Amino acid sequence: MTKHVMAKEQAEMAEFSAKVRLEIADKNRKALVVTYGCQQNENDSERIRGMLSAMGYGFADSVSDADLIIYNTCAVREGAEQRVLGNVGALVHEKRRRPHLIIGLCGCMMQQPHMAETIRKKYKHVSLVFGTHVLHRLPQFLHETLMEQKRVIDITDSEGVIAEDIPTYRSGDPKAWVSVMYGCNNFCTYCIVPYVRGRERSRSLDKILDEIKDLVSRGVTEVTLLGQNVNAYGKDLDQGLDFAGLLRKVNNIEGLRRIRFMTSHPKDMSEALICAMAECDKVMPQLHLPFQAGSDSILSAMNRRYTQAQYLDLVSRVRAKIPDVTLSTDVIVGFPNETEADFEETLRVLEAVRFDSVFSFIYSKRTGTPAAAIDDKVTDEEKHARFDRLLTVQNRISREINDACLGKEFELLVEGESKTDSETMTGRTPGGKVVNFPKTEGIKTGDYVTAQIDKTNTWSLFGTVK
User: Fold this and answer.
1) pTM here?
2) What domains can be seen in the chain, in order of their start residue?
3) Can you give the three-state secondary structure of the chain, one letter per residue?
4) Exposure winner among 131, 309, 405, 440, fewest CB in 10 A?
Protein backbone atom coordinates (compact mmCIF):
# COMPACT_ATOMS: atom_id res chain seq x y z
CA MET A 1 0.00 0.00 0.00
CA THR A 2 1.27 3.44 -0.91
CA LYS A 3 2.46 5.60 1.98
CA HIS A 4 3.04 9.33 2.04
CA VAL A 5 5.65 11.47 3.75
CA MET A 6 4.19 12.57 7.08
CA ALA A 7 3.30 16.18 7.85
CA LYS A 8 5.95 16.27 10.61
CA GLU A 9 8.73 15.44 8.15
CA GLN A 10 7.39 17.97 5.65
CA ALA A 11 7.50 20.64 8.38
CA GLU A 12 11.08 19.68 9.23
CA MET A 13 12.10 20.02 5.58
CA ALA A 14 10.46 23.47 5.48
CA GLU A 15 12.54 24.49 8.51
CA PHE A 16 15.77 23.28 6.89
CA SER A 17 14.83 25.12 3.71
CA ALA A 18 14.31 28.37 5.63
CA LYS A 19 17.68 27.97 7.39
CA VAL A 20 19.52 27.45 4.11
CA ARG A 21 17.74 30.44 2.61
CA LEU A 22 18.87 32.60 5.53
CA GLU A 23 22.44 31.29 5.25
CA ILE A 24 22.85 32.14 1.56
CA ALA A 25 20.85 35.38 1.61
CA ASP A 26 22.64 38.21 -0.24
CA LYS A 27 25.33 35.81 -1.50
CA ASN A 28 23.86 35.37 -5.00
CA ARG A 29 24.28 31.59 -4.87
CA LYS A 30 23.53 29.72 -8.11
CA ALA A 31 22.86 26.05 -8.78
CA LEU A 32 23.27 23.89 -11.87
CA VAL A 33 21.15 20.74 -12.16
CA VAL A 34 22.24 18.34 -14.92
CA THR A 35 19.84 15.55 -15.86
CA TYR A 36 20.64 12.17 -17.40
CA GLY A 37 18.11 9.55 -18.49
CA CYS A 38 14.36 9.37 -18.76
CA GLN A 39 11.43 11.75 -18.47
CA GLN A 40 10.94 10.65 -14.86
CA ASN A 41 14.38 12.05 -14.11
CA GLU A 42 13.46 15.27 -15.91
CA ASN A 43 10.43 15.55 -13.65
CA ASP A 44 12.55 14.83 -10.57
CA SER A 45 14.98 17.56 -11.64
CA GLU A 46 12.09 20.01 -11.84
CA ARG A 47 11.35 19.19 -8.20
CA ILE A 48 15.02 19.54 -7.25
CA ARG A 49 15.07 22.98 -8.88
CA GLY A 50 11.83 23.83 -7.08
CA MET A 51 13.35 23.04 -3.69
CA LEU A 52 16.53 24.94 -4.55
CA SER A 53 14.54 27.97 -5.66
CA ALA A 54 12.60 27.88 -2.39
CA MET A 55 15.95 27.87 -0.56
CA GLY A 56 17.02 31.02 -2.37
CA TYR A 57 19.19 29.63 -5.15
CA GLY A 58 19.25 31.12 -8.61
CA PHE A 59 20.28 28.99 -11.57
CA ALA A 60 23.51 28.88 -13.55
CA ASP A 61 24.01 27.98 -17.20
CA SER A 62 27.51 26.57 -16.77
CA VAL A 63 29.76 24.79 -14.28
CA SER A 64 31.98 27.85 -13.88
CA ASP A 65 29.05 30.00 -12.73
CA ALA A 66 27.59 27.47 -10.28
CA ASP A 67 28.09 27.32 -6.51
CA LEU A 68 26.16 24.04 -6.33
CA ILE A 69 26.21 21.34 -9.01
CA ILE A 70 23.83 18.37 -8.85
CA TYR A 71 23.95 15.51 -11.34
CA ASN A 72 20.64 13.61 -11.48
CA THR A 73 21.85 10.27 -12.78
CA CYS A 74 20.60 7.29 -14.79
CA ALA A 75 21.45 3.62 -14.25
CA VAL A 76 19.73 1.99 -17.23
CA ARG A 77 22.91 1.67 -19.32
CA GLU A 78 26.59 1.60 -18.52
CA GLY A 79 27.35 4.39 -20.97
CA ALA A 80 25.27 6.89 -18.99
CA GLU A 81 27.08 5.92 -15.80
CA GLN A 82 30.50 6.33 -17.40
CA ARG A 83 29.56 9.81 -18.67
CA VAL A 84 28.56 10.83 -15.15
CA LEU A 85 31.77 9.50 -13.62
CA GLY A 86 33.84 11.25 -16.28
CA ASN A 87 32.10 14.58 -15.76
CA VAL A 88 32.27 14.34 -11.97
CA GLY A 89 35.94 13.40 -12.12
CA ALA A 90 36.65 16.48 -14.20
CA LEU A 91 35.15 18.68 -11.48
CA VAL A 92 37.99 17.96 -9.06
CA HIS A 93 39.95 20.88 -10.55
CA GLU A 94 36.95 23.20 -10.20
CA LYS A 95 36.59 22.17 -6.55
CA ARG A 96 40.26 22.95 -5.87
CA ARG A 97 39.88 26.34 -7.52
CA ARG A 98 36.68 27.13 -5.62
CA PRO A 99 36.59 25.24 -2.29
CA HIS A 100 33.09 26.54 -1.48
CA LEU A 101 31.67 24.64 -4.51
CA ILE A 102 29.24 21.89 -3.49
CA ILE A 103 29.04 18.88 -5.82
CA GLY A 104 26.13 16.45 -5.46
CA LEU A 105 24.92 13.26 -7.11
CA CYS A 106 21.44 11.80 -6.96
CA GLY A 107 19.11 9.56 -8.97
CA CYS A 108 19.04 5.93 -10.00
CA MET A 109 22.78 5.44 -10.37
CA MET A 110 23.30 6.55 -6.77
CA GLN A 111 20.59 4.21 -5.46
CA GLN A 112 22.95 1.33 -6.23
CA PRO A 113 25.08 0.68 -3.11
CA HIS A 114 28.20 -0.22 -5.09
CA MET A 115 28.03 3.05 -7.01
CA ALA A 116 27.48 5.13 -3.88
CA GLU A 117 30.49 3.36 -2.35
CA THR A 118 32.58 4.14 -5.44
CA ILE A 119 31.78 7.83 -5.04
CA ARG A 120 32.53 7.71 -1.31
CA LYS A 121 35.96 6.15 -1.81
CA LYS A 122 37.23 7.57 -5.09
CA TYR A 123 35.51 10.95 -5.52
CA LYS A 124 36.34 12.79 -2.32
CA HIS A 125 35.38 16.14 -3.84
CA VAL A 126 31.72 15.06 -3.96
CA SER A 127 29.95 16.33 -0.83
CA LEU A 128 26.42 15.09 -1.36
CA VAL A 129 24.99 11.74 -2.50
CA PHE A 130 21.31 10.78 -2.22
CA GLY A 131 19.09 8.16 -3.81
CA THR A 132 15.68 8.14 -5.47
CA HIS A 133 13.64 7.54 -2.30
CA VAL A 134 14.83 10.55 -0.28
CA LEU A 135 14.79 13.33 -2.87
CA HIS A 136 12.34 15.31 -0.71
CA ARG A 137 15.00 15.56 2.03
CA LEU A 138 17.30 17.73 -0.10
CA PRO A 139 16.83 20.77 2.22
CA GLN A 140 18.14 18.72 5.15
CA PHE A 141 21.06 17.31 3.16
CA LEU A 142 22.04 20.75 1.91
CA HIS A 143 21.78 22.20 5.41
CA GLU A 144 24.16 19.52 6.70
CA THR A 145 26.59 20.00 3.83
CA LEU A 146 26.50 23.78 3.68
CA MET A 147 26.21 24.74 7.34
CA GLU A 148 27.63 21.76 9.21
CA GLN A 149 30.35 20.89 6.66
CA LYS A 150 29.22 17.27 6.64
CA ARG A 151 29.65 14.85 3.78
CA VAL A 152 26.17 13.41 3.25
CA ILE A 153 25.56 9.99 1.68
CA ASP A 154 21.98 8.74 2.02
CA ILE A 155 20.60 6.02 -0.25
CA THR A 156 17.96 4.87 2.23
CA ASP A 157 15.38 2.60 0.62
CA SER A 158 12.09 4.20 1.67
CA GLU A 159 10.10 1.68 -0.35
CA GLY A 160 6.49 2.61 -1.02
CA VAL A 161 6.74 6.27 0.03
CA ILE A 162 5.46 9.17 -2.07
CA ALA A 163 6.39 12.74 -1.18
CA GLU A 164 3.72 15.20 -2.29
CA ASP A 165 3.66 19.00 -2.27
CA ILE A 166 7.31 19.43 -3.25
CA PRO A 167 7.78 22.79 -4.99
CA THR A 168 8.42 22.43 -8.71
CA TYR A 169 10.44 24.77 -10.90
CA ARG A 170 9.35 24.89 -14.54
CA SER A 171 10.58 27.25 -17.22
CA GLY A 172 7.28 28.55 -18.58
CA ASP A 173 7.05 25.81 -21.20
CA PRO A 174 3.49 25.16 -22.49
CA LYS A 175 4.15 21.46 -21.86
CA ALA A 176 4.70 19.71 -18.54
CA TRP A 177 5.56 16.28 -17.13
CA VAL A 178 3.22 14.96 -14.44
CA SER A 179 4.18 11.80 -12.57
CA VAL A 180 1.18 9.61 -11.83
CA MET A 181 3.09 6.70 -10.32
CA TYR A 182 6.57 5.55 -9.41
CA GLY A 183 8.43 2.25 -9.47
CA CYS A 184 7.91 -1.02 -11.31
CA ASN A 185 6.86 -4.56 -10.35
CA ASN A 186 7.75 -6.28 -13.62
CA PHE A 187 11.39 -7.24 -12.98
CA CYS A 188 12.43 -7.73 -16.59
CA THR A 189 15.68 -9.67 -16.29
CA TYR A 190 17.83 -6.98 -17.94
CA CYS A 191 16.38 -3.99 -16.08
CA ILE A 192 17.71 -2.21 -13.00
CA VAL A 193 14.66 0.05 -12.55
CA PRO A 194 12.71 -2.00 -9.94
CA TYR A 195 15.84 -2.14 -7.80
CA VAL A 196 16.54 1.60 -7.89
CA ARG A 197 13.01 3.02 -8.18
CA GLY A 198 11.21 0.53 -5.96
CA ARG A 199 7.85 -1.16 -6.31
CA GLU A 200 4.85 0.39 -8.03
CA ARG A 201 3.09 3.10 -6.07
CA SER A 202 0.41 5.39 -7.43
CA ARG A 203 -0.39 9.00 -6.62
CA SER A 204 -3.95 9.76 -5.61
CA LEU A 205 -6.39 11.02 -8.21
CA ASP A 206 -6.96 14.28 -6.33
CA LYS A 207 -3.25 15.12 -6.17
CA ILE A 208 -2.80 14.46 -9.89
CA LEU A 209 -5.83 16.51 -10.91
CA ASP A 210 -4.87 19.38 -8.59
CA GLU A 211 -1.35 19.51 -10.06
CA ILE A 212 -2.65 19.56 -13.64
CA LYS A 213 -5.26 22.23 -12.87
CA ASP A 214 -2.53 24.37 -11.31
CA LEU A 215 -0.36 23.89 -14.40
CA VAL A 216 -3.23 24.92 -16.67
CA SER A 217 -3.79 28.04 -14.57
CA ARG A 218 -0.15 28.95 -15.31
CA GLY A 219 -0.44 28.54 -19.07
CA VAL A 220 0.34 24.85 -19.63
CA THR A 221 -1.87 23.30 -22.32
CA GLU A 222 -0.19 19.89 -22.76
CA VAL A 223 0.72 17.34 -20.09
CA THR A 224 2.51 14.02 -20.35
CA LEU A 225 1.52 11.55 -17.64
CA LEU A 226 4.58 9.64 -16.47
CA GLY A 227 5.28 6.29 -14.88
CA GLN A 228 7.64 3.37 -15.39
CA ASN A 229 4.46 1.45 -16.29
CA VAL A 230 1.47 3.79 -16.37
CA ASN A 231 -0.85 0.91 -17.27
CA ALA A 232 -0.46 -0.38 -13.71
CA TYR A 233 -1.80 2.88 -12.25
CA GLY A 234 -4.22 2.46 -9.35
CA LYS A 235 -3.58 -1.19 -8.57
CA ASP A 236 -2.17 -0.25 -5.16
CA LEU A 237 -4.94 2.22 -4.31
CA ASP A 238 -8.47 1.77 -2.99
CA GLN A 239 -10.00 4.43 -5.23
CA GLY A 240 -11.41 1.99 -7.80
CA LEU A 241 -9.79 3.75 -10.74
CA ASP A 242 -7.39 2.34 -13.32
CA PHE A 243 -5.27 4.25 -15.84
CA ALA A 244 -8.08 4.33 -18.41
CA GLY A 245 -10.30 5.94 -15.79
CA LEU A 246 -7.56 8.42 -14.90
CA LEU A 247 -7.24 9.45 -18.56
CA ARG A 248 -10.96 10.15 -18.70
CA LYS A 249 -10.77 12.29 -15.55
CA VAL A 250 -7.81 14.30 -16.87
CA ASN A 251 -9.60 14.70 -20.21
CA ASN A 252 -12.34 16.65 -18.40
CA ILE A 253 -10.00 19.38 -17.12
CA GLU A 254 -11.02 22.70 -18.62
CA GLY A 255 -8.29 24.58 -20.46
CA LEU A 256 -6.12 21.52 -21.07
CA ARG A 257 -5.75 20.74 -24.78
CA ARG A 258 -3.37 17.80 -25.11
CA ILE A 259 -2.65 14.68 -23.05
CA ARG A 260 0.15 12.18 -23.66
CA PHE A 261 1.50 9.37 -21.49
CA MET A 262 4.41 6.97 -21.18
CA THR A 263 5.52 4.28 -20.70
CA SER A 264 3.13 1.37 -21.33
CA HIS A 265 3.93 -2.30 -20.80
CA PRO A 266 2.25 -4.42 -23.51
CA LYS A 267 1.03 -7.04 -21.04
CA ASP A 268 -0.98 -4.39 -19.16
CA MET A 269 -2.41 -2.54 -22.18
CA SER A 270 -6.13 -3.14 -21.66
CA GLU A 271 -9.03 -2.81 -24.07
CA ALA A 272 -10.44 -0.18 -21.71
CA LEU A 273 -7.30 1.91 -22.15
CA ILE A 274 -7.42 1.59 -25.94
CA CYS A 275 -11.05 2.76 -25.86
CA ALA A 276 -10.18 5.68 -23.57
CA MET A 277 -7.46 6.76 -25.99
CA ALA A 278 -9.89 6.60 -28.89
CA GLU A 279 -12.76 8.35 -27.11
CA CYS A 280 -10.99 11.12 -25.16
CA ASP A 281 -10.59 14.07 -27.51
CA LYS A 282 -7.59 15.51 -25.64
CA VAL A 283 -5.59 12.26 -25.57
CA MET A 284 -3.18 12.46 -28.48
CA PRO A 285 -2.92 9.60 -31.02
CA GLN A 286 0.57 8.65 -29.86
CA LEU A 287 1.66 5.46 -28.11
CA HIS A 288 5.08 4.36 -26.91
CA LEU A 289 4.86 0.57 -26.63
CA PRO A 290 8.22 -1.17 -26.05
CA PHE A 291 8.50 -4.65 -27.56
CA GLN A 292 12.25 -5.07 -26.83
CA ALA A 293 12.74 -8.22 -28.95
CA GLY A 294 10.89 -10.19 -31.62
CA SER A 295 11.92 -13.70 -30.60
CA ASP A 296 9.62 -15.54 -28.21
CA SER A 297 12.57 -17.29 -26.59
CA ILE A 298 14.34 -13.98 -25.96
CA LEU A 299 11.12 -12.39 -24.70
CA SER A 300 10.78 -15.28 -22.26
CA ALA A 301 14.40 -14.89 -21.14
CA MET A 302 13.69 -11.19 -20.62
CA ASN A 303 10.60 -12.03 -18.50
CA ARG A 304 8.44 -9.79 -20.70
CA ARG A 305 5.39 -12.08 -20.36
CA TYR A 306 4.00 -11.77 -23.87
CA THR A 307 4.79 -13.35 -27.23
CA GLN A 308 5.43 -11.76 -30.59
CA ALA A 309 1.96 -12.83 -31.73
CA GLN A 310 0.35 -11.24 -28.68
CA TYR A 311 2.24 -8.01 -29.27
CA LEU A 312 1.24 -7.85 -32.94
CA ASP A 313 -2.37 -8.56 -32.00
CA LEU A 314 -2.26 -5.68 -29.52
CA VAL A 315 -0.94 -3.33 -32.19
CA SER A 316 -3.74 -4.43 -34.53
CA ARG A 317 -6.34 -3.70 -31.86
CA VAL A 318 -4.85 -0.28 -31.18
CA ARG A 319 -4.85 0.61 -34.87
CA ALA A 320 -8.40 -0.64 -35.32
CA LYS A 321 -9.59 1.90 -32.74
CA ILE A 322 -7.02 4.66 -33.49
CA PRO A 323 -6.13 4.46 -37.21
CA ASP A 324 -3.87 7.53 -37.20
CA VAL A 325 -1.88 6.49 -34.12
CA THR A 326 1.84 7.28 -34.09
CA LEU A 327 3.72 4.28 -32.68
CA SER A 328 7.17 4.24 -31.14
CA THR A 329 9.00 1.48 -29.31
CA ASP A 330 12.17 0.33 -27.53
CA VAL A 331 14.37 -2.47 -28.84
CA ILE A 332 17.34 -4.19 -27.20
CA VAL A 333 19.87 -5.69 -29.60
CA GLY A 334 22.27 -8.37 -28.42
CA PHE A 335 20.51 -9.72 -25.34
CA PRO A 336 22.69 -12.57 -23.97
CA ASN A 337 22.87 -15.49 -26.42
CA GLU A 338 20.60 -13.87 -29.00
CA THR A 339 20.95 -15.91 -32.21
CA GLU A 340 20.78 -14.66 -35.78
CA ALA A 341 17.33 -16.26 -36.03
CA ASP A 342 16.25 -14.39 -32.89
CA PHE A 343 17.43 -11.12 -34.35
CA GLU A 344 15.63 -11.79 -37.64
CA GLU A 345 12.40 -12.00 -35.63
CA THR A 346 13.08 -8.51 -34.27
CA LEU A 347 13.47 -7.21 -37.83
CA ARG A 348 10.25 -9.02 -38.73
CA VAL A 349 8.37 -7.03 -36.07
CA LEU A 350 9.80 -3.77 -37.38
CA GLU A 351 8.56 -4.57 -40.88
CA ALA A 352 5.18 -5.82 -39.66
CA VAL A 353 4.38 -2.88 -37.39
CA ARG A 354 6.22 -0.06 -39.19
CA PHE A 355 6.90 2.12 -36.16
CA ASP A 356 7.27 5.85 -36.67
CA SER A 357 10.36 5.79 -34.47
CA VAL A 358 12.43 3.28 -32.53
CA PHE A 359 14.71 3.80 -29.55
CA SER A 360 17.23 1.00 -29.95
CA PHE A 361 20.12 0.04 -27.72
CA ILE A 362 22.80 -2.59 -27.53
CA TYR A 363 22.27 -4.71 -24.41
CA SER A 364 24.06 -3.28 -21.37
CA LYS A 365 24.81 -5.62 -18.46
CA ARG A 366 23.45 -4.23 -15.19
CA THR A 367 24.96 -5.50 -11.95
CA GLY A 368 22.38 -7.22 -9.76
CA THR A 369 19.96 -8.17 -12.54
CA PRO A 370 19.34 -11.84 -13.49
CA ALA A 371 20.53 -11.30 -17.08
CA ALA A 372 23.92 -10.15 -15.82
CA ALA A 373 24.63 -13.71 -14.64
CA ILE A 374 24.07 -15.27 -18.08
CA ASP A 375 27.17 -16.61 -19.83
CA ASP A 376 26.84 -14.64 -23.06
CA LYS A 377 28.32 -16.18 -26.22
CA VAL A 378 27.48 -13.29 -28.59
CA THR A 379 30.48 -11.12 -29.47
CA ASP A 380 30.44 -7.33 -29.30
CA GLU A 381 31.22 -7.28 -33.02
CA GLU A 382 28.06 -9.29 -33.77
CA LYS A 383 25.96 -7.05 -31.53
CA HIS A 384 27.17 -3.87 -33.20
CA ALA A 385 26.64 -5.34 -36.67
CA ARG A 386 23.05 -6.26 -35.79
CA PHE A 387 22.47 -2.83 -34.29
CA ASP A 388 23.60 -1.20 -37.55
CA ARG A 389 21.31 -3.47 -39.56
CA LEU A 390 18.37 -2.59 -37.35
CA LEU A 391 19.03 1.13 -37.78
CA THR A 392 19.17 0.72 -41.56
CA VAL A 393 15.78 -0.98 -41.60
CA GLN A 394 14.13 1.47 -39.21
CA ASN A 395 15.58 4.58 -40.84
CA ARG A 396 14.04 3.46 -44.14
CA ILE A 397 10.65 2.87 -42.50
CA SER A 398 10.72 6.19 -40.62
CA ARG A 399 11.58 8.05 -43.82
CA GLU A 400 8.81 6.33 -45.77
CA ILE A 401 6.26 7.21 -43.09
CA ASN A 402 7.41 10.83 -42.98
CA ASP A 403 7.41 11.09 -46.78
CA ALA A 404 3.73 10.12 -46.70
CA CYS A 405 3.08 13.31 -44.70
CA LEU A 406 3.99 15.54 -47.67
CA GLY A 407 1.15 17.92 -48.49
CA LYS A 408 -0.80 17.11 -45.33
CA GLU A 409 -1.83 19.67 -42.74
CA PHE A 410 -1.30 19.27 -39.00
CA GLU A 411 -2.15 21.31 -35.93
CA LEU A 412 1.08 22.17 -34.10
CA LEU A 413 1.79 23.23 -30.55
CA VAL A 414 4.63 25.72 -31.01
CA GLU A 415 7.52 24.72 -28.74
CA GLY A 416 9.88 27.58 -29.48
CA GLU A 417 12.92 28.51 -31.50
CA SER A 418 14.95 25.76 -33.15
CA LYS A 419 18.11 24.86 -31.25
CA THR A 420 20.11 24.94 -34.48
CA ASP A 421 18.59 27.85 -36.43
CA SER A 422 17.39 31.12 -34.89
CA GLU A 423 15.19 31.80 -37.93
CA THR A 424 13.29 28.54 -37.52
CA MET A 425 10.62 27.55 -35.01
CA THR A 426 9.52 24.07 -34.03
CA GLY A 427 6.16 22.59 -33.19
CA ARG A 428 4.75 19.17 -32.56
CA THR A 429 1.85 17.38 -34.25
CA PRO A 430 -0.86 15.50 -32.34
CA GLY A 431 1.12 12.33 -33.09
CA GLY A 432 4.26 13.86 -31.60
CA LYS A 433 6.19 14.49 -34.81
CA VAL A 434 8.51 17.50 -34.84
CA VAL A 435 7.75 20.09 -37.52
CA ASN A 436 10.15 22.93 -38.33
CA PHE A 437 8.77 26.09 -39.93
CA PRO A 438 10.08 29.61 -40.68
CA LYS A 439 9.91 32.08 -37.83
CA THR A 440 6.73 34.09 -38.37
CA GLU A 441 5.80 37.41 -36.81
CA GLY A 442 3.04 37.05 -34.25
CA ILE A 443 3.65 33.34 -33.59
CA LYS A 444 5.12 32.53 -30.20
CA THR A 445 5.84 29.58 -27.94
CA GLY A 446 2.61 28.01 -26.70
CA ASP A 447 0.52 29.00 -29.71
CA TYR A 448 -1.43 26.47 -31.77
CA VAL A 449 -1.04 26.83 -35.53
CA THR A 450 -1.77 24.80 -38.65
CA ALA A 451 1.11 23.90 -40.93
CA GLN A 452 1.27 22.18 -44.31
CA ILE A 453 4.18 19.78 -44.76
CA ASP A 454 6.34 20.59 -47.78
CA LYS A 455 9.59 18.77 -46.95
CA THR A 456 10.60 15.69 -44.95
CA ASN A 457 13.59 13.85 -43.61
CA THR A 458 14.03 10.73 -41.48
CA TRP A 459 13.59 12.42 -38.11
CA SER A 460 11.46 15.51 -38.68
CA LEU A 461 9.15 17.42 -40.99
CA PHE A 462 9.29 20.90 -42.49
CA GLY A 463 6.22 22.97 -43.13
CA THR A 464 4.62 26.31 -43.85
CA VAL A 465 2.18 27.88 -41.41
CA LYS A 466 -1.21 28.45 -43.02
Assistant:
1) 0.91
2) 3-158 (3.40.50.12160), 162-403 (3.80.30.20), 409-465 (2.40.50.140)
3) CCEECCHHHHHHHHHHHHHHHHHHCCCCCEEEEEECCCHHHHHHHHHHHHHHHHCCCEECCCHHHCCEEEEEECCCCHHHHHHHHHHHHHCHHHHHHCCCCEEEEEEHHHHCHHHHHHHHHHCCCCCEEECCCCHHHHHHHHHHHHHCCCCEEECCCCCCEECCCCCCCCCCCCEEEEECEECCCCCCCCCCHHHHHCCCEECCHHHHHHHHHHHHHCCCCEEEEECCCHHHCCCCCCCCCCHHHHHHHHHCCCCCCEEEEECCCHHHCCHHHHHHHHHCCCECCEEECCCECCCHHHHHHHCCCCCHHHHHHHHHHHHHHCCCCEEEEEEEECCCCCCHHHHHHHHHHHHHHCCCEEEEEECCCCCCCHHHHCCCCCCHHHHHHHHHHHHHHHHHHHHHHHHCCCCCEEEEEEEEECCCCCCEEEEECCCCCEEEEECCCCCCCCCEEEEEEEEECCCCEEEEEC
4) 309
